[in-house]
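Task card 7
Instruction: Convert sequence to C-alpha cells.
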Amino acid sequence: MDSNIRCTREQLITLMKVRGREGAAKLGKMFGDASALTEDYLKSSITEGLSGDPDDIAERKRLFGVNVIPEPEAKSFLRLMWEAMQDLTLIILMCSAAVSLILGLTIEIESNGWIEGVAILVSVIVVVLVTAFNDYTKEKQFRGLKNRIKEEQKFAVIRGGTVQQINIAEIVVGDVAQVKYGDLLPADGVVIQSNDLKTDESSLTGESDLIKKGPNNLMLLSGTHVMEGSGKMIVTAVGVNSQSGIIFTLMSGKKDMADDAHDDDDDEDEDLRIEDDTLSGNGEIDIEKPEKKKRLKEKSVLQGKLNKLAILIGKVGLCIAVLSLLVLIVRFCIETYAIGQLPWVPSHSRRFLGFVIIAITVIVVAVPEGLPLAVTISLAYSVKKMMLDNNLVRHLDACETMGNATAICSDKTGTLTTNRMTVVSSYLGKKLYPHDPVINDLSSNYIELLCEGIATNSSYTSKITPPPPENPDQLPGQVGNKTECALLGFVKKFDRNYDDYRKKITEENFLKVYTFNSVRKSMSTAIPKSTGCRIYTKGASEIILKKCSSIINSDGAVHDFSSEERDDLIRSVVESMASNGLRTIGLAYKDIDNYNLVNWEDEESVIDDLTCIGVVGIEDPVRPEVPGAIKQCQSAGIVVRMVTGDNLKTAKSIALKCGIISENDGFIVIEGKDFNRRIRDKHNKISLNLMSKLLPKIRVLARSSPEDKYTLVKGLIQSKNIQDVVAVTGDGTNDGPALKVADVGFAMGIAGTDVAKEASDIILTDDNFRSIVKAVMWGRNVYDSISKFLQFQLTVNVTAVITSFIGAASIQASPLKAVQLLWVNLIMDTFASLALATELPSPDLLNRKPYGRNKALISRTMTKNIVGHCLYQLTVLFLIIFYGEVLFDIKEGRANETAHSLVPTKHFTMVFNTFVQMQIFNEINARKIHGERNVLQGILKNPIFLIIFFGTIAVQVVLVEAGGIAFHCLPLDLDLWLWCIFFGAGELVWGVMLSYIPSYKLPKSWRFGTKPVEYPISEPDSVPDNRARVIISFRCCI
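Output:
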C-alpha cells in the first residue's frame, strides 16, 4: 500500500464544484492535469488502476469516505402507530369513547356505564396496532427489495491491470473507472480518456443539452447519464462527498431550507424544462421536441378506478350516517320532549352521544379504508413472488397495470432471441461463404486488415472469456456488446487473438471514435499508422455499403465499387442473409495521409469514400420458449409487436419464427421511415386519425429509431379507437422516452443500460420474453385479488349500513354496536385482505381477454353477487331482529336496545353472531368473481386463507362466549349456535343459486368504475442521485 496520497477530501470536493473551462483551469492550477492527479496525488495508475490491496482500499475509505448515501432512518413502530391514529374516523371514535367513558363514570345510570367507552378504546388500539404492524412489515420488505437492487448494481473499474465489475458501494477515490454509453455514474470523477463522451447532466444542473467531455470539460458527476461514447475517469469523490450526495444530504438534513430554495427556483425550473408533448386539439402529436423535460404520467388504471369508487362510497356512507343521526335525534326529541313532555336531564347527553357513535360506526363501516391495505398486501405479496419469476418490480403499481395490458411492444435482441450471437455466414474478398470462410482463399494482408479492424473498432469492454476449468465443454462467455462479441469470435476463426491487436493499439492511441448510436447506426475508430491514419467502420450493412466507393478483394487489391455492383451485393448477399433471419454487418475502412488536416467534427465527410472489406451475417437464434409464450399472449388477447433496428427481411424472418405474424395473415411489417411517412399529414405533423387507421395492422416495426418506438407507444395509448394499455421492453439509453410513456416499461437486467433501468417499472433479470408473460399472469391475479376483496367488502358495507340505518329508524339503536362493527371492520380490512389478496395465480388467467383501460372495475357478475348476497343477509338479519323471539324461542331484546341498556341480550347477540358467520362463509364465495360455481376449487392451495378462515371463527366464538358487556354479547346455547352457522353456511348454497342467473342479461348500468379518475403526476425525466429507488405508489382518495 502506498500511503503517500498527496491531496485531501476537501481539495477534491472543491475541485468538483467547478465545471467547464473553469474546472479544467482549476485542475491545472491545483494538480497539473488529470494524469498528474491520478499518478502523483492519488497514487493510482491510468493503465493499471489501483492495486486492489485491501489495506489500501480501507485507507482510501477512511480518508475519502465510502460510496454509500445513508438511507433515511426507518420509521419506528411507535411512529407508525401514531400515523395510524391520524385516521379521522378513529380520532372521532376515540373522542366519542373518551366522552362515553367520562359520562359513564360521572353520571350513574348503570354501574357498568364505563365499559362501552373502554371497549371502543381497546378496539381502536387493536386496529391501530394491526395497521402499524402491516405498515412496519411492508416497509421492512421494501427496504429489503431496495437493498437487493443496490447489491446488483455493478460498475467497471481497473484494478491490478484487469477490468473488474465491482459493486458500486466498493468504489473508492483513486479507482480508474471505465464509463460507456448508457451508464449511470456512481461517483464523481475527472476524465482521463474520452471517446466522443457525452453526458446528460440535466438532473443536477438543469442543462438540457448533452455535455461533451474532453480537454475543456473534464468533470463527470455522479447521478448523471452517459448518453454517447466511452472513456475512463479517475474517481475523485464518493458517497455524501459527491455532487449528488451533497444535494441529497442538504435535502435530508435541511428540508425546510431546500423547500424554500425550491420555491424560489420554480420560475427558473419552468424555463429549463419543456412540457410533455400531448395530442393537440386537432389530433396532432408533435414528438420532435427535446426529451429532457418534466413528464406527466397518469395514475395506474386500477388506482384511478379505485379512487373514483372510494369517493362515491365515502359520500354515500356519509349521507346515510348523517341521515341516521338526524332520524335518531329528531325521533328522540319528538318522543321525549314533544310527546312525553319530559324535561332535560344530564342522562340524555348519553343518549345523544350514543346517536353520534352510531353515525360514526356507519361511516367506519361504509368507508372502504381497507382498499389501500388490500392493494398493498396484494402487490407486496405479488412482488415478492415475481422475483422468483425473474421480474424485479421497481414501481409497485406496474404490477397490477400488467393485468390490464392489451399490447406488448418487444425488442428483438435478447428478449425474443438468445442474445448469443455468432457469425455464421460472410462475404469476404468478393466471395460468399455460407458457412466458415476458407482461410487459404484470403491473403495474410487481407486477414490482418479484417482482424485489426474488428479488434480495434469495438468497445474494449467487449470480450470473449474462456469456459471455466471445471466445465471445459461449455461455450466461451460473451461479455459486453454481443454483436461485437460475435465479431471477436469471428477473429478467432482466423487463428488470430484480438487482444494482441488491442495491446498494440490501446484506447489512448485512438485519434477519434464515432461511437454507435441509433442515428448513425455505425461505429468508426481512427487509429494512427506510420503513413497517416486509418479509419475502421462497421455498422448496418446497407448504410456502410452506400458510403463505399471501392472494395478490396481476397489478395488485398482495391477495385472500384460501382452503384450497380453495390445494389447487386445488397440484393444477392445482404437480403439473402436477412431472409434467413441473420443480422448483417458491413465492414469498411479508409486511409488518410495527413490526419492533422482532418476536420473530425465533419463526420459526414470523414466517414465517406470508404473501401468495403466485407459483410458478415450474424445469427441470434430465437429462444425456444418464445413461440409458446407469444401464443399464450395471443390467447390472452394481448397483441405482441416487435420493434427492432434490424432490416425488414431479418425482422420479418424472426417474427415468423416467433409466431408474431404468419404467412398471408394481412398484418403489416413496416420500416421506421415508412411508418413515419404514413402517419404524417400534409403539414408533416403526426396525425392521430392516420395513426389510428395504421396501428391495428402493424405487427413489426423494422429499422426503427427510439423516436419511432416512442411514437408507436404513445399512439397506441392515445388513439381513441384503440386506447391500449401498453407494455414496452427496452435496453438502450434512447429507449428511456418509450419506457417512460408506456403504461409499463420493462428494462433488460442483463443487456440493459443503467439509463433504461432507471426509466423502467420492471426489470427482467433474465432478459426473457417468457418472464413478461408471467408478469401478465401476476398482474391479472392482482387485479382479480383486489376485485375479490372489493366484492366481499361491498357486501359487508351495504349490509351493515342498511342494518344500522333501519335499526336506527325503527328501534332507535343500531343492532350492531360500535365495538362489534370495529371487529367486523377488522375482519373486512386486515384479515380479508390477507385471505383474498394472497391467492396464487393459475394459468387459467391467460385464457381470457384483458380488462383494458375502460373495463368496469365492478362487473355485472360482481354486482349480481353483491346485490344477491346483501338481499340474503338482510333478509336473515331482519327476520332475527323483528321475529327472532318467535322463531328461536328467545327473550325479545328490541326494548332493551331502544332503552340503550348496556346489558346484552341473546337476541341481539344472535344478530351479531349470524352477521359475522355470514361474512366468514361469504369470504369463500368472494374467491370467485367470474361466475364460477365451484367456489372451493383451489382453496387447499392457499394456507393463509384457511388459517384466517378458521382463526376468525375461533375468535368469534371467544367474543360471543366471553366478550360479555365489552362486546355486548351473552353466551349462546348450542341450538342458537347451530342456527347461526346454518345461516352462515347458507351463503354457499345461495352463491351457487346466484351463479345460475346469467350476467349478460343484466343491464349494462350494473357495471361500475368504467373509467379511472385521471390525476397527472409530475415525474422528472431523471433522478438526481444514483441510489436504487423503490417507489411505492398507492394513493386512495376518500
